[in-house]
Design brief:
The chain has one domain. It has twelve helices and no strands. The C terminus is likely disordered.
């Protein structure tokens, strides 16, 4: 039994929670942020830029860290774990690549050639090597990029592999391992934010590692972490105050992860406890849809109108991805787990 009646584990219902709604909200936030560069708008104020540009994806990584560590700890089987992660992320991603290369780009720009094929082949293993297709999209505020969102998926999968490596080596049996790795990532953030030159690889690894491990750390300490108004207010103050730092994650990695997970835990409205998770589809399809809108001149509406129309178009596309691709594939994944211990949280199909 949890030590505290208001501990996170007491408040969070693993079978009925609002994490899918939180992730959908975060995906909508990504659309809002991308609407600035895709319409040629600028955000000069550093705190506002960090808030709009970073928080959404960081929140995704925090929630993933919480769910993925929990998944491994419930069923520490390398084959089943890796199979589940591959089926969750790759099939829908491959379909998105094909749709972008052979439907969206040809119809929007009349471009069809080897570049369409190489766009799929070069990006098929999640690491993005080709952003445009034969110079398209062109004539838009953000040219040469069909999908500026999917580059983060490789880092997400690397985080999955980190948990796998820690699991198979037995490191996760030692509680200090996760907090130590988290501290190392925060130190990496401190180093790169103060370094005189940009070290993109270290900076990005520290960013995503800190957020993913923050979520994992909350899973590890969920019986001890309190879930109450005072801690929520303190976390909000830390996140907002840290926006004036060169990298807000220096102080806010753990508070932001806490906020994302607590919001998901305290949502009680049944309509917001979404059983279907379309957030992944929103994330991977929004950018090419926004570029098509930009090609049509919709970027002249400005950020609010552009973002609203993009969201309205992306949601049904994401729903189609969920019901036609993701959910059927995940049923197959669950069949492969019949002999595995029960997850106990009903969220296997919602892990990213």
């Amino acid at each position: 039994m949890p030590r505290n009646p208001d501990s996170f584990s007491s408040v969070f219902d693993p079978r009925a929670n609002g994490l899918n709604f939180v992730r959908l909200f975060l995906a909508a936030g990504v659309i809002l942020w991308h609407s600035f560069p895709l319409t040629g708008a600028e955000i000069d104020l550093l705190p506002l830029r960090q808030l709009l540009a970073e928080v959404w994806v960081d929140g995704f990584f925090a929630i993933s860290g919480f769910l993925i560590l929990g998944s491994w700890m419930r069923d520490p089987h390398a084959g089943r774990y890796l199979r589940a992660r591959i089926l969750r992320i790759l099939p829908a991603f491959w379909v998105c690549l094909l749709v972008t290369a052979f439907i969206v780009a040809p119809l929007a720009t009349m471009t069809f050639g080897m570049g369409n094929l190489t766009y799929v082949v070069k990006n098929a293993v999640l690491w993005v090597f080709q952003y445009g297709i034969d110079g398209t999209p062109a004539g838009v505020p953000f040219p040469g990029v069909w999908n500026g969102s999917i580059w983060t998926l490789a880092w997400e999968f690397l985080c999955y592999l980190l948990i796998l490596a820690l699991g198979v080596t037995g490191a996760l049996r030692h509680p200090p391992v996760v907090p130590v790795l988290f501290i190392i990532c925060v130190l990496g953030i401190a180093f790169t934010s103060l370094a005189p030159v940009e070290i993109w690889l270290v900076e990005t690894a520290a960013r995503f590692g800190s957020m993913f491990l923050a979520g994992a750390l909350i899973w590890q300490l969920q019986d001890r972490i309190r879930c109450n108004r005072n801690f929520v207010m303190l976390s909000i103050l830390l996140v907002v105050g840290s926006l004036w730092l060169p990298d807000y994650r220096l102080l806010a990695s753990l508070p932001l992860a806490y906020l994302m997970l607590v919001i998901g835990a305290v949502i009680k409205t049944p309509r917001l406890r979404l059983r279907n998770d379309i957030s992944y589809g929103v994330y991977i399809y929004a950018f090419p849809i926004q570029q098509v809108l930009a090609l049509a001149g919709v970027w002249t509406l400005g950020v609010p109108g552009f973002a609203s129309l993009a969201l309205a178009i992306t949601v049904p596309v994401a729903a189609a991805s969920w019901f036609l691709i993701e959910k059927p594939v995940l049923r197959y994944k669950n069949q492969s787990l019949r002999r595995a211990p029960a997850s106990g949280d009903g969220s296997e199909v919602r892990e990213h």
